[in-house]
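Our preliminary data section would be incomplete without showing what the modeling component actually yields. Below, a chain of 188 amino acids is followed by its predicted structure, encoded as tokens that our downstream tools consume directly.
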Amino acid sequence: MATQDRLIESTQELLWERGYVGTSPKAIQQRAGVGQGSMYHHFAGKPDLAAAALRRSAEQLRALAEADLTAPGTAYERIAGYLGRERDVLRGCRIGRMAQDPDVVADPQLRAPVEDTFDWLRGRLAEVIAEGQAAGELTPSVDPADTAAAVVAVVQGGYVLARAAGRAEPFDQAVRGALGLLAAYRTD
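Predicted structure:
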């Protein structure tokens, strides 16, 4: 793996584990197995490297979600696939955790991948819901944008509840509840 990729991957992991403030350049270098000169050869500093790591995490999250949302099946089945996908629930969401980091939220460069990812995800889920309506699978009374926002909130809130409890069941319960609510809009 190239040095630049090792630095980005190491930063992704450290941001997920420790947050922005808890991720020092020294910790990044140690995790990546590179020296200070290598880090500063590829990146202007910690903010630049963190932004690259956040963009990569956002791309990965989008790819996973897109795979679920373009899978065969009805709109409900695709959303159920997205909600039911295997996750490391107790670690939380790589992107969602950054929305809770005051240093990330305060920096437009760092916040942009977080904000853009959630905007994309809400939009993509709304498209799937609208597709389900157009196919006659979901009733016209469901609002795609509002429902998409609720689905994203269930996932992010489920992570928080699971982490607070120290077990995955609150996340699973939130997913089951969301699917039960969405099922009320099915036409079949």
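The radius of gyration is 18 Å. The longest helix spans residues 108-134. Preliminary results of this kind motivate Aim 1 of the renewal.
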